[in-house]
Amino acid sequence: MKDSSSDGGTGPRPAGSRGRSRATGRVTLADVAALAGVSPITASRVVAGKTTVRPELAERVRAAVERLGYRPDPSARALASAKSSHVVVLIPLLSNTLFTELLEAVQDVMWEAGYPIFVGITQYRPEREAALLDSYLSHRPAGLILTGFDRSEAQRRLIEASRTPCVHVMELSGEPGVHCVGFSQTGAAQAVARHLLERGRRRIAFVGAQLDPRTLERAEGFRGVLRAAGCHDPRLEILDPRPSSAALGAEAFRRLVETHPDLDAVFFCNDDLAHGGLLEALRLGVPVPGRVSVVGFNDLPGNAQMLPALTSLRTPRREAGDAAARMLLRLMRGEPVDAPVVDLGFELKVRASS
Question: What is the pTM of this model?
């Protein structure tokens, strides 16, 4: 039934005649209603996108919104609905292209759906993530996207108690009630190890940095394949807790070739490490892949332009962001999710370095 209240005959009233916040000077819904000559409830229905208002009244409200530059107050909306209109996304870093591509995909989906996103940077620090979760959940977000599953039982209880729809990205879990989008970190590292073995490499090193759970899963996948092939050597593993960087990759490569002259391959668990390794090989005059094969992980932009072009395991970061955002939208709307666990797989991009 169309709204046919007395709004139809009152005529426009002067803007600002009532309702403007004296404390902030902010244009209010009452200002919009006054300018349009409708009741506040009619203006509210139009702003909320309801279709029960007569077209001519709705047009007057929209014109008033445009003229006054009115924007809905998110805090008022949150009080009315017990939820805010934003989505929180927690990622480890913004300096890593992996996460910026994921974040851009999430924003593209949420922007079209009318949800702004709030971004928190954890810096791979559990205490930082705990503080961010506590702060953001106090604002009652409409939804939550988290990177991986590495958090305390207290944090898990906090998320559960908030009843905030949540989707995890970049890792998979078969735990009941968990919604996640990603790929097998272990399986991806196994694919790299098999590739190097198929190329005839036997003295294969692993270089990992940051040592977050995903890096450690890759290390374990790598070890399993080499153990099965009878060529795993723990002395060829470098696990460095420092942040991943090209400088660290160069340092690791130099240490490996100096202490293990029979080295014939290196699997770097991030592409920036691999870039540093390739550059150090050039400086040292170590032929790649003639003497040592080099493989990276994530297949970030620039790999094809390296000398030689870098073989790398491509991860589905943009696809993960898109799929996670769409899954979260369904959860936020109370719609069924047919597949709570979405495995996007991975692809080994073989180039000249291996």
Answer: 0.77
